[in-house]
Automatic annotation (TrEMBL):
PROSITE patterns per UniProt: CYTC (PS51007), PROKAR_LIPOPROTEIN (PS51257)
Superkingdom per UniProt: Bacteria
Signal peptide from the UniProt entry: 1-24
TM regions (residue ranges): none
Keyword set includes Protease: no
Species of provenance: Chitiniphilus shinanonensis
The entry's keywords: Electron transport, Heme, Iron, Metal-binding, Signal, Transport
Name of the featured protein: Cytochrome c domain-containing protein
Length: 110
């Protein structure tokens, strides 16, 4: 039976760890994220459905330095009165990192 160097196991572990880190750091496509978190049930890129379009949101908050954090908070916690009487429900399934990514993506709409 051939003998293997103990380095083979170390290298295999290092490669698998590095591969796992690369996967975790890969950004998720924001459009797919919005679809998977039910954002598109109430919002569309350019047309009002139940809530405002992503373009309307971007237009309203363009240039506001506090908008990304405020929008990310609203995505997770919900809100009321920003766009009329119909409240936006909280989205506890959305992580803080996902909310920040979605907020930046929405605010970049033109």
């Amino acid at each position: 039976m051939p003998r293997f160097s103990p380095w083979y196991g170390t290298v295999a572990v290092m490669l698998s760890f590095a591969g796992g880190c690369a996967l975790a750091a890969d950004p998720v496509d924001p459009a797919r994220l919005a679809a998977s978190r039910a954002c598109l049930s109430c919002h569309a890129p350019a047309a009002r459905i139940v809530g405002p379009s992503f373009k309307e949101i971007a237009d309203r908050y363009r240039g506001d330095a506090k908008a990304p954090a405020a929008l990310a908070r609203t995505i997770r916690q919900g809100g009321k009165g920003h766009w009329g009487q119909l409240p936006m429900p909280a989205n506890p399934r959305v992580t803080e990192a996902e909310a920040a990514q979605l907020a930046r993506w929405i605010l970049d709409r033109k």
